[in-house]
Fold each of these.
Amino acid sequence: MAQRKTVRRTSKKQKEKIKKALLGVLVSLVALVLVVLGVDPEWLGTIPGGNDLLTSLGLSDISIPEGEASVHFIDVGQGDASLILVDGHAVLIDGGENDKGDTVVNYLKNQGVERLDLIVATHPHSDHIGGLDVVMAAIPTDTLLMPRLPQTQLPTTKTYKDLLTQAAESQVKVVYSEPGQQLTYGDGRLTVLGPLEGYDDLNDTSAVVLFRYGSQRFLFTGDMETKAEKDLLEEYGAGELGAQVLKLGHHGSSTSTSAAFLDRVDPEIAVACVGTGNSYGHPHQETVDLLANRGVRFLRTDQNGTVVLSTDGSSLQVICQKGE
């Protein structure tokens, strides 16, 4: 008796899955070619799966309602880069590692940034200032704000020299941060709170700045650790330090964000700028537990990608590149 041959048929669901996968491969190839050629890839967002691709390539354009301010914690891996957009003005706080300059530039351009009013270089570690020379070379910048360091602490690294060299070549005005400085951009105001003292640890020399827009406040702490936090606690009350959003010091390390400091700031949201699987173990579990115990919503760029907080001055909207 002849053996009956079994014929495997591809279901409609499987066909759709294969079709979607092939389309994804095609779109990916086209996108990569566009990136190499320097062509604006935004039109890919109109193709099925295109928005997901743009996000994976770091090219997505997160739209913010007109008339609102927004703060962007850009995913640059294990490093810091934050963008403030307010009333036609743009402020960049740090720029990631040396290899992340182009990532930051592409993000700024996708947000329509043609000029930076201010760059804040919180402190001279490469994961904060490494990409800033590339940014200043690509985007006209008015002012570079950085902490003043004593001669004995001035870095001799190529990264630091590149920062100053590019600032000079791009005719960027260099200003040293001082507590109490206030800079106004439209209806937004940036206030320098620290550092208050000279410190041996460069992390503690981080420029600490508070951005206000209406009733909403965002506190940026660079890599400030508990020693400098203690000085801020002695100098400022909740009225000066309080903020709805806290950019965690030193990527969520346990050497920063003491319980006393967190209680004084009393944020609704905390953001850690960290790289996936980083060798430092950031954010440390002690910090994660502290935030959970205080009921603070915790967002992190290794899990959420770029995090954008937009505000009309009275409420906050959270937009994450991935996750929730």
Amino acid sequence: MSTIKLSVVVCVYNEEENIKPQIQRIAEALEGYEYEMVFVDDGSKDNTLKELYSVEHPRLRVVELKKNYGQSLALMAGIDYAQGEYIATMDGDLQNDPSDLPRMLKIAEEEGFDMVAGNRANRQDGMVLRKIPSRIANYIIRSTTDVHLKDYGCALKVLKADLAKDLGLYGELHRFVPVLAHLEGARLTQVDVKHHARQFGKSKYGLSRTFKVISDLLLMLFFKKYMQKPMHLFGNAGVILFVSGLLINLYLLVLKLMGEDIWGRPLIILGMMLLFGGIQFITIGIVVEIQMRTYFESQQKKPYKVRRVKGF
């Protein structure tokens, strides 16, 4: 059996009309390559699974998840089952173009990059709901993580298999694959790729994901700067809070000595409650995230369950 050069992982959720055209486009783009297509159904409620199982293609593999776990865990499942030397990821909505994959694979092989990411140079999406929020998010991620890519949201990527399998895509961290790869010491580059307007189905993205992106960005900053030295984060914050509280108490003591009544000032009480509440939530989120990773990785458990696998 020939060695599989490229595994194309496609996560789909309610994309019944896009399945057969997507498979055909991938097959045409990779003709002459040793490749496989790994389609992960993330608990679709329409006829997506029926369409996948109706296609008889020797290079098609289907991973059917028991329920909807979200894009990150679906992507993790596809990567876990992929058998290629390189792993390509792409959306299942026909907006990414598989014809870009041979060029991206060639760059990764010949120039020694661990990951080649796509940049949607001529993005075919709505300006207000998609482009503007994406540009703002890209700027924030680029300036805070020091990973300088133009487009973090493009799903079209080619990665070395060993890198892809070590990323740890828990939660909803699929948006931060370049940052996770950078944390692993990977060599990254980005190339312009084609992008098409959606023809069938509805987009799964919207403004509601903004708060999730911000939360995940805080987690990425923690992993990048403080994973091995958390006291530098919590210690500094503790000192700042302690000094601030001390100054406030000294101020109130001076007022008390001057004969003023300082008991029960609502703004001080409210400010302290909000301050400590915010710190507690952020801290608990980070601690729980680390505990979840430790739980799954120490016991070699997967945070998803597969109902059926075809073609492997």
Amino acid sequence: MRAVIMHAPGDVRVEEREDPQIIDPTDAVIRLAATCVCGSDLWPYRGYDQPDHQHMGHEYVGVVEEIGSAVETLTVGDFVVGSFVISDGTCEICRDGHPSRCVNAIMVDGEIGTQAEKARIPYADGTLVATPGRPSADLIPSLLAASDVLGTGWFAADAAQAGPGKIVAVVGDGAVGLMGVLAAKQMGAERIIAMSRHADRQALAREYGATDIVTERGDEGVARIKELTNGLGAHSVVEAVGTQESMMQAIRSTRPGGSIGFVGVSHDVQLPGGELFFSAVHLHGGPAPVRRYLPELIQLIWDRTIDPGKVFDLTLPLAEAAEGYRAMDERRATKVLLTL
């Protein structure tokens, strides 16, 4: 089968790999219907991490082709959405609602790689969720978004305690930040402030429910948030970048007693203890427990209540994956969908 391999920073190739097979009785093999490039894939692409023939991709939807003898919730032919972290669904951590930190967790990116034609999914019952039927083609991008970027934005808004009467600020206008806007709107936030400098992303943020746009960053961005909130700061802040600047911008934009949901993949972020102590804010985040939210998100998409698939603004065949990476790296695209 064809699959995307990152040999080194900036070196993305589509190569032949062996077709996956059932190894354990809890496995499923799926044929992918669509996959995509994630903003987090740009960390190794830009050299912040050091990939070495890494199997790329962790967002995926597709059709079950084969199941192991212990798989109980899926049948061959099911259309499924999977989480970006493999989880068994039965350990104490999974049962407590944190499947992305399952005791048997496997990161799909690197270990499996779903920028490919097929994938073996361990612990299929704990990782995959079947849709109510075969989706129409126009629903596939939205279902693909649920696999990570929507689920991650949803978790960020949930962790930030977005809800009725709340002012929500979103730091980061990439795909996850835009999904955080969508999620905050669905959760009933009264006001949503999107921090963005890009006109196309501002437009989509407004479509998803943003009421205000802040173009400033850093201390200037914080000052603008305070200005919009009577000097107090937002009740709920989504941090969707993962840098020192974005984290401090999030903390300083949050009012005392408010909450931050941080889901940007952290790179060299250090928290100043004194400032954090006196900020009196709640911090919760990390790898999103996407599997926890999948049944709800799939139903919202199936009922056409939400349309997260609009976040994909460039579609390419798998063979042109390298161009997809370039387009996102150069900010010519917000998120790239790869067809198979």
